[in-house]
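Support reply, case 0932

Customer input (verbatim):
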Amino acid sequence: MYQTIIFNTQGSIGVLRLNRPEKLNAFGGPIRDEILDVLGKIRDDQTIRVLVVTGEGRGFSAGGDIDHLKQLRENRDEEGFKLVLGKGQQITRTMRALPKPVIAAVNGACAGAGFSFALGCDIRIASDRATFGPSFARIGLHPDWGGSWFLPKLIGSAKACELVFTGSMVPAVEAERIGLVNRVVPHDDLMPVVMDLATTMSLNPPGVLRLAKESIYRSLSSDLETAFARETQVQTECFHSEDFLEGVTAFTEKRKPQFKGR
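Our regenerated output:
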């Protein structure tokens, strides 16, 4: 169905693979539109509770397709360039608004827009072969896809400045140390570890995951009193759910709960 991505489901987990391995999964051709299309389907599919994003071949994503960017610049096609930027921003917005956890399984090089794409996911698990960097400066560009917003929030402004100003790539171990990724695992264990994590999340009430994701990201720009008010509102919503009743009933009956998203 798609030319540049592969999408399938494994139970209640959706798996999106960037599929331009010959280009290190650089964002060229219809890939942005195809990602947006599949994100819309995932959003509307209530059977999918968690999304995993990874790359085919030896890279996660090298970022923008340099040949295409060069062509846009040579033709002074500002409108075409802004269209590319806008679609990247829409991908980030859609992932952040997705009412489900999004996990990046970073299997290799993760640079430029690919780096920002990974930062837009909720959680990042890295192969020990992965490398990371906002390499935009190396080709005369500024970070996009929200990278300049995500990066300092994850690692602090000083370290963000260092990476952006140098365009440096860092290995997975360093990425974990500075807080770019949640953890690093042996390369061959990457997808089993990520799928196990996704499965654990998928067994929890989807309504709670949705509300908690919203609350966590709202907290980045709110104060404690606002958070208290939000917690009261959403806890009351959870209180009236069938899943809460199932959760406490299963606990008292010493069995695993069966959450249905109601």
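We compared this against your earlier run and they match. Two observations from our side: Strands lie at 5-10, 13-18, 50-55, 59-61, 102-106, 109-111, 123-127, 131-133, 170-171, 183-185. The chain has eleven helices and ten strands. Please reopen the case if you see a mismatch on your end.
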